[in-house]
Fold MoaD/ThiS family protein.
Amino acid sequence: MSVTVRIPTILRTYTGGNAEVSGEGATLRDVLIKLDSDYPGIGARILDESGKIRRFVNVYVGEEDVRFAEGLDTAAPEGTQISIIPAVAGG
């Protein structure tokens, strides 16, 4: 299934400056594997060493925060938009 992945500014060095890229996969996990295949190294910025979404990275499939859905097994329906959003902290 084809999806659109929104890339945050901090990760655009991996995508040649593109703010959005195409992705494929039935689940978020599939999409992230394909994304890392197309843009080597980006997966390590999203997933930790154990393969889980990094603590300070939020990922949405459509409007749904995957932490409150099925996590990496969240379905990625055809045409949906996946947003990768790094957490911002500070004072």
